[in-house]
Design a protein that fits this description.
Length: 128
């Protein structure tokens, strides 16, 4: 069963930024990326998100200690629980890869990427 269903994809298609949270020995760490990066590297397996990584040094350090990650997406253009506007929290495990098939895919679209942030989503919660 797809964790990232068509409703979640519709929100990702209509959002501008994706917030990314990790946690390490210094506590929570929050970064963001443009949703275009998420959309352009869609694996279409219903659970994997790939994001080009240019910086993300603290994110990478945190993931080596604790591979749990959360993403937040939202859009006012998509019907929610009680009107227009909805958002989702996507939780899972992640790592930054620097070789292999997903890195090759990332580099083919984003020559500046030093790695690919690969997220395996295991839980999706609608927030609005």
């Amino acid at each position: 069963m797809d964790t990232i269903n068509s409703d979640v994809k519709k929100v990702i298609e209509n959002t501008e930024i994706v917030a990314i949270a990790t946690c390490g020995d210094k506590g929570p760490h929050l970064v963001a990326t443009w949703s275009d990066f998420v959309k352009s590297l869609d694996i279409n397996d219903g659970k994997t998100i790939v994001i080009p990584a240019g910086g993300y040094s603290q994110t990478e350090k945190n993931l080596k200690e604790n591979d749990r990650i959360e993403l937040l997406v939202g859009s006012k253009q998509v019907q929610g629980k009680s009107g227009m506007g909805t958002g989702y929290r996507l939780s899972g495990r992640a790592k930054i890869v620097t070789d292999g098939k997903l890195m090759e895919l990332t580099k083919s679209k984003y020559s500046w990427a030093r790695g690919a942030l690969v997220i395996e989503v295991d839980k999706v919660e609608q927030l609005l």
